[in-house]
Design a protein that fits this description.
319 residues, Membrane-bound Lytic Murein Transglycosylase D, Chain A, 7-stranded antiparallel beta sheet, Protein Transport Mog1p, Chain A, 10 helices, alpha+beta
Length: 319
């Protein structure tokens, strides 16, 4: 069985290798026809290889990619042959780039903040879906890829509100979505309303069992998505105060404005000219990268795993 698995793995790996080389050849053709050096394909593949080696080093040696190159891509003969064919497509005259690459890179948004969103004080910003929500003053607010959580002073027992994104169902308004899709049969009272320009529904839920002092939900429709607000406070909390806080939080939901973008995308590429004193270790101390900053800066600058900036080099940092 082990032998069969090994042979199968070799066959699949070989097939994958041929397919990748074909893709690299086509990529080289396209780059050549655009007037650029086809050997940029090899440099691009080396970036992928460096990323693979980095991920493998932080995962305890576990293979994170199927490993196309047993050797350095720049020494891979078949890859060079595949790319060499592309040179016949390089035009006789090439057009100068409209803008300088380094100028275009400087200030470029970096990282996954756009996907996850960020929290500044009590306000949540997410530029990927272009929304802003503000929680009550003094609340603690955290976010993950899947939800935003706000807690009242004193903890979740005093009041907690979560926001999660769901998919809108065609033909349903917010009230119907709550009833038919969420299948909530515990709505005590609810109302349809507009939250800024967006259709919404907000409701009190049944708390007759005494496990909660108050429980509420709301849904807001925006751009084909549903933003589902769920809030509650434990017995002993001020139900009326929480109800007011919940409604106020929902009411802050709005589309992102131009001035919000700079706040929502704080991490940006900064291009600098290296000095004799610069090293990736020293630059990492000034960077906003939180995990593996030295290794990440090396990856960004094609110096992985052990390279260092040379005086006069233009170096990409993250601030």
């Amino acid at each position: 069985m082990d032998t069969t698995d090994a042979v199968t793995g070799m066959m699949v790996s070989g097939y994958g290798r041929d397919a990748e080389l074909e893709a690299d050849r086509i990529g080289g053709e396209l780059i050549a026809k655009a007037g650029y050096n086809p050997y940029a394909v090899i440099e691009m593949v080396q970036v992928l290889k460096d990323q693979e080696l980095f991920e493998k080093s932080i995962s305890g040696g576990r293979q994170t990619y199927h490993g196309l190159f047993a050797t350095h891509p720049k020494n891979d003969k078949r890859l060079h042959e595949a790319v060499q064919v592309s040179y016949q497509y390089v035009p006789n005259e090439t057009v100068e780039p409209i803008e300088d690459m380094w100028e275009m890179l400087d200030g470029l948004v970096y990282g996954d903040e756009a996907a996850e969103g960020i929290v500044k004080e009590q306000t949540f910003y997410n530029s990927s879906v272009r929304i802003v929500v503000t929680f009550p003053a003094a609340w603690s607010v955290t976010n993950t890829r899947t939800q935003v959580v706000g807690q009242a002073p004193g903890g979740g027992s005093k009041g907690e509100i979560t926001i999660a994104q769901q998919t809108q169902v065609k033909g349903q308004d917010p009230a119907e979505y709550v009833k038919k899709t969420l299948k909530r049969d515990d709505v005590v009272s609810g109302e349809s309303l507009k939250v800024n320009e967006f259709d919404a529904y907000i409701a009190d839920l049944d708390v007759a069992d005494g496990k909660l002092a108050v429980s509420m939900l709301a849904v807001v429709f925006k751009d084909g998505a549903v933003y589902f607000f769920k809030g509650s406070a434990d017995p002993g909390a001020d139900a009326d105060a929480f109800r007011a806080d919940f409604k106020a939080t929902v009411a802050t939901f709005r589309a992102m404005a131009k001035e919000d973008v700079a706040v929502a995308n704080r991490q940006r590429i900064k291009v600098i000219e290296a000095t004799p004193k610069d090293s990736y270790a020293s630059l990492a101390k000034q960077s906003s990268i939180k995990r593996y900053p030295v290794e990440t800066l090396r990856l960004l600058n094609a110096d992985f795993p052990n390279g260092e900036p040379r005086p006069g080099d233009r170096i990409k940092t993250v601030q």
